[in-house]
Design a protein that fits this description.
Oligomer: single chain
Keywords: Phosphopantetheine, Phosphoprotein
Strand content: under 5%
Number of helices: 3
CATH topology: Non-ribosomal Peptide Synthetase Peptidyl Carrier Protein, Chain A
Shape: globular
Protein name: Acyl carrier protein
InterPro entries: ACP-like_sf, PP-bd_ACP, Ppantetheine_attach_site
Length: 95
Amino acid sequence: MKNSLYTSQNTGAGILVTDLRDQVRRYLAEYFMTDDMPGDEELLVEDLGADSLDLLQVAHNLNDMFDINIDTESLPDMLMVGSACDLVERLRYGD
């Protein structure tokens, strides 16, 4: 899956958290080929149709997009769209 549309650019000020969450949602919508951006409460497996390989691929792509490191132990934190956004925020900006 191409992710060049979602690669953040460092403008000196960085990207806003809301922009980051929107970028994650847009990426998930494209990856899972949905017409609408998924909401925070949507489940990657039940609502978007993810399987374990999808979760690994999504984590890998998010790592590349945001220059973070989502390890396999963090995959349970990515089962909902909102929690995936929270995880990316936490890894990108700290607690």
